[in-house]
UniProtKB/TrEMBL annotation:
GO molecular function: 3-hydroxyacyl-CoA dehydratase activity; isomerase activity; oxidoreductase activity
PANTHER family tied to this protein: DEHYDROGENASES, SHORT CHAIN (PTHR45024), SCP2 DOMAIN-CONTAINING PROTEIN (PTHR45024:SF2)
GO (cellular component) term, any one: peroxisome
Region (Disordered): 472-491
Keyword Kinase: no
Protein name (record): Peroxisomal multifunctional enzyme type 2
Pathway: Lipid metabolism; fatty acid beta-oxidation
Length: 737
C-alpha cells in the first residue's frame, strides 16, 4: 500500500532547488499541500529572488498538486508558518533544509562567516520549528526533519562554522524528540549526500551528477509519514543507501581510589584501557549515560581500588568474578521477624490504591468491618526485609554492586488467608544463581511462618546488571516462570489512577528506597522523577483480579506471578487486562497514557468458589469495545456531572460479534452524576445503537465516519436519532485509548 500525504500540510525550507525542490515535488505528488520556501539567495547567502520558489510551485501545480510559495528568510520563522496557516489551515510537517556555505580555514573565518552560518542553519531551523511547535502539539501530530551533514558528524577541513551548526542541529533534534514524544511529534535528523549547489563546491562534478537528490527524498517522506514511529534517529543517506548512526562508548576505566586524589599519571598509565572499544556500550539516552557515573561512585566507595567500569565486570577482574554459585546456592540468610496489627494492613491497602470511594474496599480499610481482611499481596511485606536489611551482602559467593540490583520478577503463594495482626518470621534461602551474560539472576526463596505454620512463600528474582559472564547456567527448574497471556482480546479490563503521592504512601509499608521519593536520587538513577514501586503496581493488578473474578474474597486468592518490565510514574493510570482460563487469570498491566507494558507474563491463580459451578466469562468477554466502555465508565465517575449537563440523554448500545448480540451497555447521562450499566437496563434508552465490535472500534478511533456507517447499514439507530450527534462528546473526549 503506497504512502499517502493527502490532507497533510508540509513546509520545505530552501525548496527552490536541489534537495528541497525534490522534497517538495515528492510530497506534492503524494497528495500533500506544500509550502515552497526559498529566499532566492546565492550559496553564500547574498541576494534575494522569488523566481526559484515560483518555478517549483508552477511545477507542482502543472501536475495537479497544491502548493504556494514563500520568499521569507528562515529567520522569520513565524511568517513561514503563517503562510501555511493562511493557505491551508494547518501545519503537519516541517523539513528544515535551507542552508548556505561560507567555507574558510579556521584561521581565516571571520565573525560574519561564523554568524551567517549559525543564523541560517541553526537559528533558522530553531525559529521555523518553534513557530510550528504549538500547532503540532494542539493537533497531536507533527513530523520534523533537521538536516545535518557528514561535516558536522566527522568534521571537515575549511568548514568549522558549517560543522558546528550542523552538529548543533542534531542536539536540537534529539531534545525535540524527547519533548515532542507525548504529543506524537517526532523529530529525526538526516545527513544527506546529494548533488546540489552546496556540494558542487566540495565534490568532483561527475560525483555530484551521480548523487541525485531523488535518492534522498524517499527517506524524508517515510520519516514524515504518520505510520513511521522513528523518533530521535540520525541517518546518513545517499546514492540509494541509508544507514542509521548511534553513539558508541568504551567500557572505560576507573582511575581514582577512595580517599586519594585523581592524577593525570593514572590516566596516562591506563590510556589504552580507557580507549579500548572491545565490548563497547551504546548509551541511547542521558539516563543510560548517568547510570555509569552512579555505578562508579558506588564502586569507588565500596571497593576503593582502581578498576574497570562496573558494566565491564564480566570481561575483566571486576564484579563478575565475584559470583560463585557453588558457594552461594543453598545459603540461608539470617531470619527476620515482622510484627504488625490492623494499622499496617490498612496502610498497605491505601498504598496500593484502595479508597473509601468504593464501598467494596471498606473490608480492607476499616478494622471494625465484619469481614475485615488483609489484602493477599500484603504477603510480600514481611518477606521483603530479607532484601531490605542487606542480607544478600553477607552471602558467600555474591560479591555484587548493590547499585546495579534490579527487581526482575516476583512470585507469591498463600497457604492460608493472611492474619490482620500478629508476628511473622521469614526464612530466606538462595535457591539458585543464573548467568544471563549481561547480568546475573539471583533467585531468593522466602518462607514466612506464623509460629510453626507456613503462611506464605515468596520468590524474588533479582537481576544484577553487569555481573554475568561467570560461566554459570542460564536457566533453573527452581524458577517460577512467567506465562504469556492468550492471543485474544482480554475478558476484562480495569483502569485505575494512581495519585501523585502513591509512591510516598506505599513506601510507608517498609520499602524506604529513596528512588521512590527523592528527586535528586531518582535523577542519579536515570529517572526524571521518583518512580512507583514495582510491588505497588503488583498490588494494584492483584486487587483488580480479586474484585473482577473473586468477589473481593481473599480466601479465593492462591498465588500471583509477575515480571516487572518498565517503571510507572506516580499519577499515571494503570490498565490491567485480564484473561480467565479455569482458575488462572492471566494479566498484563500497562500505563494507560503511554500504552507501555509494566507487568508482563503475569497471572493470578484462584481457588474455586466453594459449592459454586464453574464461573462463566463476563458478558462481552473478548470484545475490543470492553476497553472503550471501561474508560467511559471511569470518566463518568470523574466528570459525570459535567457530562449530564452537556448531554442529558440515555444511550443504549448493542454490540454484535459474528452477527450475534454479544454485549449490551447503557450510558445514563440524564440522572444524577451519570452512570454506566452493563447488561439489561431497567430504564428506557432515548436512543439505541447496534453496531459490530469491529465497526464500533473503527468509529471510536476515527477510522469510520458515523454518518457513513449509518448510511451503509453498519450502524443501526433506534429512537431519537438526533441525539446521536452528541456521541462525539462521549466517544471523542472520553474514550481515548
Amino acid at each position: 500500500m503506497s504512502l499517502s500525504f493527502e490532507g497533510r500540510v508540509v513546509l520545505v525550507t530552501g525548496a527552490g532547488g536541489g534537495l528541497g525542490r525534490e522534497y517538495a515535488l515528492a510530497f506534492a505528488e503524494r497528495g500533500a499541500s506544500v509550502i515552497v520556501n526559498d529566499l532566492g539567495a546565492d550559496t553564500k547567502g547574498g541576494g534575494k529572488s522569488s523566481a526559484a520558489a515560483d518555478k517549483v510551485v508552477e511545477e507542482i501545480r502543472a501536475k495537479g498538486g497544491k502548493a504556494v510559495a514563500n520568499y521569507d528568510s528562515v529567520e522569520d520563522g513565524e511568517k513561514l508558518i503563517q503562510t501555511a496557516l493562511d493557505a491551508f489551515g494547518r501545519i503537519d510537517v516541517v523539513v528544515n533544509n535551507a542552508g548556505i556555505l561560507r567555507d574558510r580555514s579556521f584561521a581565516r573565518t571571520s565573525d560574519l562567516d561564523w554568524d551567517l552560518i549559525q543564523r541560517v542553519h541553526l537559528r533558522g531551523s530553531f525559529l521555523v520549528t518553534r513557530a510550528a511547535w504549538n500547532h503540532m502539539k494542539n493537533q497531536k501530530f507533527g513530523r520534523i526533519i533537521m538536516t545535518a551533514s557528514a561535516a558536522g558528524i566527522y568534521g571537515n577541513f575549511g568548514q568549522a562554522n558549517y560543522s558546528a551548526a550542523k552538529l548543533g542541529l542534531l542536539g536540537l533534534a534529539n531534545t525535540l524528540a524527547i519533548e515532542g514524544r507525548k504529543y506524537n511529534i517526532h523529530c529525526n535528523t538526516i545527513a544527506p549526500v546529494a548533488g546540489s549547489r552546496l556540494t558542487e563546491t566540495v565534490m568532483p562534478p561527475d560525483l555530484v551528477a551521480s548523487l541525485k537528490p531523488e535518492y534522498v527524498a524517499p527517506l524524508v517522506l517515510w520519516l514524515c509519514h504518520e505510520q513511521c514511529q522513528e523518533n530521535g534517529g540520525l541517518f546518513e543517506v545517499g546514492a540509494g543507501w541509508i544507514g542509521k548512526l548511534r553513539w558508541e562508548r568504551t567500557q572505560g576505566y576507573i582511575v581514582r581510589q577512595k580517599n586519594q586524589s585523581m592524577k593525570p599519571e593514572s590516566i596516562r598509565d591506563h590510556w589504552e584501557k580507557i580507549c579500548d572499544f572491545t565490548d563497547a556500550t551504546k548509551p541511547a539516552n542521558i539516563q543510560e549515560s548517568l547510570q555509569s557515573m552512579v555505578s562508579v561512585l558506588s564502586q569507588v566507595e565500596s571497593q576503593g581500588d582502581v578498576g574497570v567500569n562496573p558494566a565491564a565486570a564480566a570481561a575483566s577482574a571486576g564484579l563478575g568474578s565475584g559470583i560463585d554459585p557453588t558457594k552461594a546456592v543453598g545459603q540461608k540468610l539470617p531470619p527476620t521477624t515482622f510484627s504488625f496489627n490492623h494499622t499496617q494492613c490498612i496502610l498497605y491497602a491505601l498504598g496500593v490504591g484502595m479508597s473509601t470511594k468504593d464501598p467494596d474496599h471498606l473490608r480492607f480499610l476499616y478494622e471494625g468491618h465484619p469481614d475485615f481482611s488483609c489484602l493477599p499481596t500484603f504477603g510480600v511485606i514481611p518477606s521483603q526485609a530479607a532484601m531490605m536489611d542487606g542480607g544478600l551482602s553477607s552471602v558467600p559467593g555474591l560479591n555484587i554492586d548493590f547499585t546495579q540490583v534490579l527487581h526482575g520478577e516476583q512470585y507469591l503463594e498463600l497457604y492460608k488467608p493472611l492474619p490482620t495482626s500478629g508476628k511473622l518470621t521469614s526464612e530466606a534461602t538462595i535457591a539458585d544463581v543464573l548467568d544471563k551474560g549481561s547480568g546475573a539472576v539471583i533467585l531468593l526463596d522466602v518462607n514466612t511462618y506464623s509460629g510453626n505454620e507456613l503462611v506464605c512463600y515468596n520468590q524474588f528474582s533479582v537481576f544484577v546488571v553487569g555481573a554475568g559472564g561467570f560461566g554459570g547456567k542460564r536457566s533453573s527448574e527452581k524458577a517460577k516462570p512467567p506465562v504469556p497471556p492468550p492471543k485474544r482480546s482480554p475478558d476484562a479490563v480495569v483502569i485505575d489512577s494512581t495519585t501523585r503521592d502513591q509512591a510516598a504512601l506505599y513506601r510507608l509499608s517498609g520499602d524506604w528506597n529513596p528512588l521512590h521519593i527523592d528527586p535528586s536520587f531518582a535523577a542519579m538513577g536515570g529517572f526524571k522523577a521518583p518512580i512507583l514501586h514495582g510491588l505497588c503496581s503488583f498490588g494494584f493488578a492483584a486487587r483488580h483480579v480479586l474484585k473482577q473474578f473473586a468477589d473481593n474474597d481473599p480466601s479465593r486468592f492462591k498465588a500471583i506471578k509477575v515480571r516487572f518490565v518498565k517503571p510507572v510514574m506516580p499519577g499515571q493510570s494503570l490498565q490491567t487486562e485480564m484473561w480467565k482460563e479455569g482458575n488462572r487469570v492471566h494479566i498484563q498491566c500497562k500505563v494507560k497514557e503511554t500504552d507501555a507494558v509494566v507487568l508482563a507474563g503475569a497471572y493470578v491463580d484462584l481457588h474455586g468458589a466453594s459449592g459454586a459451578s464453574p464461573e462463566n466469562l463476563s458478558q462481552g468477554g473478548g470484545l475490543q469495545s470492553e476497553l472503550v466502555f471501561a474508560e467511559i465508565g471511569r470518566r463518568i465517575k470523574d466528570v459525570g456531572s459535567e457530562l449530564v449537563k452537556k448531554v442529558n440523554a440515555v444511550f443504549g448500545w448493542e454490540i454484535t460479534k459474528d452477527g450475534k448480540k454479544a454485549a449490551q451497555w447503557t450510558i445514563d447521562l440524564k440522572s444524577g452524576s451519570g452512570s454506566l450499566h452493563k447488561g439489561p437496563y431497567g430504564g428506557k434508552a432515548d436512543v439505541t445503537m447496534t453496531v459490530s465490535d469491529e465497526d464500533f472500534m473503527e468509529v471510536v478511533q476515527g477510522k469510520l465516519n458515523p454518518q457513513k456507517a449509518f448510511f451503509s447499514g453498519k450502524l443501526k439507530v433506534r429512537g431519537n436519532i438526533m441525539l446521536s450527534q452528541k456521541l462525539e462528546v462521549i466517544l471523542k473526549d472520553y474514550a481515548k485509548l
